[in-house]
Amino acid sequence: MDLGISGKWAVISAGSKGLGRGCAEALAEAGVNLVIGARGKDALDAAADAIRSEFGVKVVTAPGDVTTDEGRDALLEPVPFPDILVTNAGGPPPGLWSDWSRKDFIAALDANMLAPIDLMKRVLPSMIDKRWGRVVNITSMSVRAPIGVLGLSNSARTGLTGYVAGTSRQVAEHGVTINNLLPGIHDTDRASALDCAAAAKDGQSPEEVRKQREDSIPAKRYGTAAEFGSACAFLCSVHAGYIVGQNVLLDGGTTNITM
Q: What is the rounded distance in angstroms from the CA atom of residue 60 to the CA atom of residue 170?
């Protein structure tokens, strides 16, 4: 399927690895030029080189921490008025409700709620002027079914979800869509870190924890960054203009809900 977005520009935060990298590659395959950001310059440069080589699109790197004003300035400096924005940031650490201080919550809000909101506020006016734009926020299945040990993530990402619910419906008439992708467990560094944390806590090996988690998923496997990226690319396509303010689960059937 021709997604109809070849030649457009996308800005992707945390795009050097994992789900962000999957989105970057899927958009590049559709002919979209990229600005990708991440904190690690070496991994960022390697990802950019690989994407350029495989897909022949323009790829600009923007090293920096997207949770800071300076990092967001750097991310948007190469292309201040992109056609597509994909927001993404690593999730806060797991723990118990009694573990987290106000400082921990502020850090989670900065990374997983306030940073994507600020990026949206910066790019939406130009998208409205062009009467076309796509925003996809990578959040978590936990906004539909909270996960106890991910209380920081539950809180911050649910706040972002509420913001998108209202804002997306205010900009839709201008040809701009905002949607959220809600990943379940995907085969990424984040999943490996959570598996290792659970293994250390329960006295198991990471492989045993992963097998147990896979058995709990109806699809009986972890998702891949490539299939996640394909879903992102479709939401960014010309075919998705009537999809507004949605929370799309990609969790292998884990979240057992009817709506």
A: 31
